[in-house]
Amino acid sequence: MKGRQEDTMREEETDRFSPEDLRGLFAPPPYPETTERIRERLLLSLRALSRRNGAPTSWPSSSLATRFLESGQPLQPWSFEDYVQLLDDDILPHVARVASPHSLGHMTSGVPGFMRVLGDLVLGLNQNLVKKDASRVLTLLERQTIGMMHRLAYRCPAAFYDSHIQDEDSTLGIATSGGTLANITALWIARNSCLGPRDAFAGVEATGLPAALDHYGYDRAVIIGSSLMHYSLEKAVSILGFGADSLLKIPVDRHGCVCIGHLRNALADCRRQRARIVAIVGIAGSTDCGSIDALGELASAAREAGVHFHVDAAWGTPLLFSALHRDKLNGIERADSVTLDGHKQLCLPIGNGLLLLRNPTAAGVIAKATRYMLQEGTGDLGRCSMEGSRPASTLFLHAALHVIGQQGYEFIGNENIRKAQVMAAMIRDRPEWELLMEPQTSIVLYRYIPERWRVRRTQCHMFTPEENRQLNELNESLQKIQSEKGSTFVSRTIIENSSQGEGAPIAALRAVIVNPLVEDADLRAVLEDQAAIGAELEQTLPPRRRVHGHEDMLFTVRP
Asked: If you write DSSP's letter for every residue of 156-209 in order, what string do you get?
């Protein structure tokens, strides 16, 4: 990174600032020839980052951080060309190569080329969707886009949408910057709905949670869902005043799905303990392993208990388009609210989330107004949004629904799942790998097994807790080394219920297949790269020894 000394030298050499130059930065297109040349240069850099080969220059994160310690800022403006040179030298060689087909660790990927053109348009227009007169027709477009996704999830009659899409008193959904805010907003609505105004009581939004619980005769309020709920639910219970202990995490089975029997027991316990159940949360694609809860059974449990049913479908969104896989989401149409995330498997730029609401008037319990905007009847989308000012990001989804289309998204979702099944088959066929869970969507969990233990695995022998601890160390080191090398990538997670027995914490390599450009050969290349790293790590292990009549590993991995 350019240091303060170099910046000072720049400033001493020339006095660049002029009001005319500053105004020129804001001039509308056409842009100067220099700007267009730089644009082409950056596009070449983007293409390079999308290649299968050509890993970025690798530095340990701690060493790279030392290059970004300067807190001073230039007094005189740089030319844009100079700044782009800084990007070329210090930034672009070290970014995460999320668009590479050899990068299988993230839930985001590259975006289609037409999105980059739309990105210029969204930035250039700089519309503010908090207020209708700051966005005008884009408010109408956002309402239409939300209606399209609502129809995909809930399948209400066409007349329903004709009535509600552009009705300013109806809210079919709320655009957000991602799944986190969508989940928090859903539980905000659920809280205000079940602890709202009654008689002379003003409701939880006005009085706070302790007064609301006291008024309604409860000792506490809880949210119930799977132990694999997204961590945004932990944020939600803290922000909404419930406290972390009020998020009741129900165990999952070996497939990563919530145990319905345990959940029903928890519901009964809550009733006995005077705990107000604010919502039941179902997962349609967990971030750990892609598992999908039995949404229909959860919907029934929520209906019987008289509580809000929320579905987090941030990862499972594309299954809604698929005739082949949509039945995995049966029951989602009974949810009171649904979180969708466009910047995952819908291939949109980061910053595209949605909360869908079955009841068009449900969001009224969180509506806000000010004297200068958001007044009742204005049609301002910010009335029911946790965010204030926000860009016209819904334009990306609106465009994708037309340019990629339902058939395109169906193909992408089906192919992602097919590739996950192909990768799972590759893992099963190789002795150095253990498949930890059959993929339900397009996330594959597996781990590397050293040669000395492979016979035991093929004989279906379970590893001891100590052996699993050592395997965890090995696989964690493998993933770290692979990440530092940069030519291929998967992430990792910890699962606590697998073929090794309930409650055994297992470090799992986690391949996330989301990039439409990934081919079967890329899956094989990632596994081969990992196998080579694993073989190198094995060379650091001490010789086997006999302990109590059997071979014992007892090693410490040195990455």
From this structure: --HHHHHHHTT-TT--SEEEESSHHHHHHHHHHHHHHHHT--BTTB--HHHH-H
